[in-house]
Amino acid sequence: MEAIASWHRDRARRTVYVAIAILAAAFLAAGAFTFVYARPIVSLFITGPDAAPIVEHGATFLRVVAPTWVIMASYHMMNGAFYGSGSTRLAMGIGVTTLWGAWAVFAALFVLVFSLGAIGAWYAIALSNVTAALVGAIVFVRGDWLADVISDGSDDTDGTEK
């Protein structure tokens, strides 16, 4: 039965890699498009005679954060694998500590210590995205999320766990 369990684990891992590749390609294109056309995109939503400074701030935000979208796509696929395998506490822990915890630390550092203002908060968002993806990738590659979570099918004949 260990061979079957190993096959399921390998299949789950391969499926996530394929999903990451597909989603990363889409978000790479979306991020590049957004980076290049940040100002026109923001201009779709902000109009009026005094819109120029707001549009510029929005465009700057998109140029800072959009390059991390491909990284976040990978993180979300890995996190989805954690949830799907039943490792919900692991997925929540990574999200809370890296996306929220790291963001708060980076934001405090950039905004309060280095006085970068709004752009410091935006870089904090980008950096927390990268941190989440790195931590998620380490956990994913180590494979701990697969241990004793994915059933080998031997105790599951009618789709319900015994």
Number of strands: 0
Percent in strands: under 5%
Number of helices: 6
Q: Strand count, sense and closure of the main sheet?
A: none
Measured distance between first and last alpha carbons: 17 Å
Task: Give the helices and strands as they follow along the chain.
Answer: HHHHHH
Radius of gyration: 20 Å
- Name the average pLDDT: 88
How is the quaternary structure best described? Answer: single chain
Q: Would you tell me the structural class of the helices and strands?
A: mainly alpha
Give the uncertain stretches in residue-range form: 157-162
The global form is flat
Helix content: over 70%
Please explain how this structure is put together.
This protein is mainly alpha-helical. Helices cover about 75% and strands about 0% of the residues. The protein contains six helices and no strands. It is flat, with a radius of gyration of 20 Å. The relative contact order is 0.14.
Outline the secondary-structure elements:
Elements: H1 2-36, H2 38-43, H3 52-65, H4 69-84, H5 88-113, H6 118-142
Helix pairs in contact: 1-4, 3-6, 4-5, 4-6, 5-6
Features:
6 helices; flat; mainly alpha; 162 residues
Task: Give a short synopsis of this structure.
This protein has 162 residues and is mainly alpha-helical.
